[in-house]
Amino acid sequence: MSYFLPVLRALNDADINYVIVGGVATLLHGHLRVTADVDLVISLDPVNVARTLDVMRVLNLRPRLPLDPAGFADPVQRRHWVRERGMMVFSFFDPTNATTGVDFFADDDIDFVGLKTRSEIKTLGPLAVRVCSLNDLIAMKTVTGRAIDRQDVEALNIIREHHGRTTD
To answer: How is the chain split into domains, by residue range?
Structure first.
């Protein structure tokens, strides 16, 4: 996971409003699994999105799709991508290591304020990072239908039961 540390450090340094979800959140909640990207839900307010895109540019990360990142900052364009083209995430990759990436959820229907309110601060190497709650992670993974997410849900439910955490 050390390949995510520079990205997360840069997001922290730029005071980006984000919550880690997906595979990295699964790892941070205690289930060992492999992941090649870090999935983030960010506040989609224009200032936060613009600062996030600046961080991606400074880190020399490129969009996976041939799309102008400025479109992600435009709520109308982003909504079009989500509703008309089925975009779930706007993905960036490092041209020197295309196997890893950073994915930002594009759907503005995600309740970011609630997600952040229920989130936890966890340690990832030398960094303090904001990670979605165990219950939110289970809920997000339950709706995807992907086999890896079904496996994660089984493991995360065991972790939740083991720790006696039924609510966040």
So the answer is: 2-134
Which tokens belong to 62? 């490129």
Do the beta carbons of residue 91 and residue 105 sit within 8 Å?
no
Contact of 59 with 14, CB cutoff 8 Å: no
Dihedral sign (CA 100, 76, 46, 67): positive
What is the pTM (predicted TM-score) of this model?
0.92
Q: Which fold has domain 2-134?
A: Beta Polymerase; domain 2 (3.30.460)
SS3 content of the chain, % helix, strand, coil (to 5): 45, 20, 30
* Interval 107-149: pLDDT, tens: 988 999 999 999 999 999 899 999 999 999 999 999 988 899 8
